Amino acid sequence: MAHIWLLDGDPREWTPMPLVGDALTLVNGTLRPVDETPPIPFAQTRLVIRRLAEATHTWALLTTSRALRLNGDPVPLGVALLDDRDEIRLPDLTVWFSTEAQAHVEPFPESTRGFCPRCKQPIEVATPAVRCPGCALWHHASDELPCWSYASTCAACSKDTALDAGYRWTPEDL
Ligand SMILES: [Zn+2]
Ligand SMILES: [Zn+2]
Q1: What pLDDT is attached to residue 18?
Q2: Which of 45, 80, 98 is the last residue of a domain?
Q3: How far is the CA of 130 from the centre of ligand 2 (A)?
């Protein structure tokens, strides 16, 4: 899931905030849905991060702030597409956008068909499964068929199968 890295907590640490929903804004250093109630005052909405297409990592940045810098550059017309590891800087706040995904167990979706690359068997709808964040192939993740965690890497690519492996990239890497 795409996320925003921002400094949070005490002591302040780089913290990933998942982009849940279709449009979010940063108010007082936290990500909030644009359409929450009561509405966020317009004057506080300096930037909005908006999903452009369902189930993709395509997000756009919209801003009313002339002081905002995206990777060091102003944003003409206040609209830009976001790329992995983009830096968004306001005079008092710097955040990073990342599309890196982490592996997690979820019910195998109805709209999907697939054979597990580990055991070559079909995956039943609604059974526990993991979609590899590296190659996007689904693996069984049930007690009977623990195909995702069976080995230290994905059956089809080099992605680490630890579910709590953490993000490979953080702003601290800079
Ligand atoms: Zn399997
Ligand atoms: Zn993979």
Answers
A1: 86
A2: 98
A3: 10
